[in-house]
């Protein structure tokens, strides 16, 4: 029945409607207008395109987004609430996401970011914010495990204490509550220690003893080995070996004097 319909496939049929075509073998069109059943054994019900367009129009009218000319979905000018959280990019398979979390992550593997703590935020790469209300704002391999803790960037830094922070650098740790570490402190300390130790005439051996350089040493005021005696007014260029700081301590009061033993003056 109908008008202008075509059944060109073997064993195909058009039941009615207008300008429908059943070109596939064993295909059929039940009705409607300008429908096409082009594949083998395909069946098309009349009015499917119309129904699809109407449903699409209905659904799109109730969602708070509009698709612009560039294919971007643009949100309505309204407030949006996401009770569970938002992940921008890839979901990390290694992560147990906390409540009300935000993460920007490009990879779904061990390098993905993980906001585990409730209210936590992670940016960068392979960072973890496991403390409640903690954040890692960039860098690589950083961890903020304390409550309200934060790592701003760098690599392999850890903010362990509650309210602690690490600003950057590498392999820094803020382990106490309320502690703050600036990036590069460890490197700065090592560099300063190396510079200072290179200018002093002692070397610390494996047992912790300070060994003097092979050089002459001069002590214009004097030397006390052991305890300083509080009862003594030491002279210039004196030497004393004394074990106690009391009435039994040795006392080299005269200039150029030497005292050994106990309670000697």
> What order do the strands of the largest sheet run in, or round the barrel if closed?
9-10-12-14-16-18-20
Query: Sheet bearing the most strands, described?
Result: 7 strands, parallel
Shape: rod-shaped
What is the straight-line distance between the termini? 135 Å
List keywords for this structure.
265 residues; alpha/beta; seven-stranded parallel beta sheet; five-stranded parallel beta sheet; 25 strands; 25% strand; rod-shaped
Architecture overview:
The chain is built from two helices and 25 strands. The strands form seven sheets. The chain has a seven-stranded parallel sheet, with no helix packed on it. It has a five-stranded parallel sheet with strand order 11-13-15-17-19, with no helix packed on it. The chain has a three-stranded parallel sheet with strand order 1-3-5, with no helix packed on it. 11% of the residues lie in helices and 25% in strands. Strand 21 and strand 22 form a beta hairpin.
